[in-house]
C-alpha cells in the first residue's frame, strides 16, 4: 500500500508541473493572438523576456496556494472523478480571474474582445493540463483500490450480527472499496457473534489494536439502533484521530447534513469531520492563523498593560492554564488571563463562575465583562488547538455530566473548539450544568450549519458583545 505522504506528493508535483506547462503553452498562444507582443522579434525572445520568465516562476507557486485552499490535497485516496472535475474547474477559474486582474489587465489591447479571449484561453489551457494529470493519478488509484492491490486496514466497531454481516458483505464485493477488515470491536451492551475468523477487541483495547495493526479506518456498525449507545461509543473513538464512518440505516440521527463518503455499495457517513467542504476547512484555518497573529501583534501593548494590571491587582501568575477537551477528544491547556484569586478552586471538584462571584478580582471583573481574559487564547488558535469560531471547550468533569444527559454532545468533538461560538453569542456564560445543556443546542445548530459566512456573523456579533460590555 502506498503511503498517504507519497500519494499527496504525487498530486502536488503533478499540479506544479502541469501548471508550469499550462503557463508556457498559454504564453506561446498569447504571443500569436495578442498584437501587443508583436514588438518581439520571435516567440523565443518573448518567452525569454524578464516579465514572462518571472511569471513562469511565480505563476505555478500561486497556483499551488489556490489548489491547497480548494482542499484538493486533504484526501488523496477517496477521490470522485466527477467532484475532481468540478474542483479543478472552480480552482483554475478562480486563479484565471485573479491572474487577469493582477497581470493581464495591464496589457493595452485595441479590442476588448482580446481580453475575453485571453481569459478563456488561460482557463481552458490550465484546466485541460491540470485535470489531465489529476485524472491519470486518480484513475490509477481507483484501479489499485478496486483490484485490492491497495487497501486500508479497518476495524469494524460492532461484533453483533449487523457488524459481522457488513464485514462479510465488504469482503464479498467483486470490486473492493478499499477496506481491509482486520478485526471487530465489541460495543458494550450488545450480544456478540461467537464464531468468527478475525481478531476481536474490546473498546478499552482499541488504541493498542490500532497501533499494532496500523489501522487507517473505523466503521461503526451497531446491531442495536440506539443513537445514545452509538454516540457514547463514537465519543471514545474521536481521540484515535482516524476517519470514523457509520452506516446510515443504523444511525439516522446524523443524516441531516453529513457527508456521504462512499457511493458504491452501501453509502457510509463520515462523522469524524465537519460538514464544511474541504476547501472551506482550509480557508477557515488560514483565516484563523492570519487573524490570530494580527490580533496578538496589534494588541500586544494592551496585553502587556493587562498583564501589569493583573500583577498589581492580586498575587499570583498572569496567565491561567486549564485543561479542556478539544478536537477529536484530545485534552489541551487553554490559556486565559487570570481573572480570579490564585486559590479560586481549592475543592476536589471544578467550580463554575457565578454572578457576583467573590473569587473574581477587581481587574478580573472588568476583563470578563469585555472578554479581555479570552485574548491569550489566540495563541491556542495559532498552535492549532482551537479555532476563532467553534463550540466552547469544556472540562472532562462537565463533559461527563452533559453527555450522560445529552449524548449528542460527543459530536462537538468533530471540530476544533473556538474562542467564541454561537452558544456564547446567543446564550453567554453558563453557571451550571443545566445552562450548559441549554447552550449546547446552539453549538449543535452551529455544527449542522458550519460555513465561513456563519463564522463571520458570529465574529461580528462577538465584537458587538465586547463593545457593549455584555461579556458576563
Structure characterization notes:
With 472 residues, the protein is of the alpha/beta class. The protein has 3 domains: 4-146, no CATH class; 152-270, 3-Layer(aba) Sandwich (Rossmann fold); 278-468, no CATH class. Helices cover 50% and strands 9% of the residues. The protein has helices at residues 4-33, 43-47, 50-69, 81-102, 112-146, 161-172, 206-213, 227-235, 278-298, 300-313, 362-369, 377-382, 396-405, 422-426, 433-448, 452-468; strands at residues 152-157, 179-185, 200-201, 217-220, 244-246, 269-270, 319-325, 331-337, 387-389, 418-420. It has a 6-stranded mixed beta sheet with strand order 3-2-1-4-5-6, with helices on both faces. Strands 7-8 form a two-stranded antiparallel sheet. A two-stranded parallel ribbon has the order 9-10. Strand 4 (217-220), helix 8 (227-235) and strand 5 (244-246) form a beta-alpha-beta unit. Helix 1 (4-33) runs antiparallel to helix 5. The longest helix has 35 residues, at 112-146. The protein is flat, with a radius of gyration of 27 Å. It starts with a helix and ends with a helix. 32% of the residues are buried. The mean pLDDT is 86.
Write a concise keyword list for the protein shown above.
472 residues; alpha/beta; Rossmann fold; 6-stranded mixed beta sheet; two-stranded antiparallel ribbon; 10 strands
Describe the secondary-structure layout.
Layout: H1 4-33, H2 43-47, H3 50-69, H4 81-102, H5 112-146, E1 152-157, H6 161-172, E2 179-185, E3 200-201, H7 206-213, E4 217-220, H8 227-235, E5 244-246, E6 269-270, H9 278-298, H10 300-313, E7 319-325, E8 331-337, H11 362-369, H12 377-382, E9 387-389, H13 396-405, E10 418-420, H14 422-426, H15 433-448, H16 452-468
Parallel strand pairs: 1-2, 1-4, 2-3, 4-5, 9-10
Antiparallel strand pairs: 5-6, 7-8
Helix pairs in contact: 1-3, 1-5, 3-4, 4-5
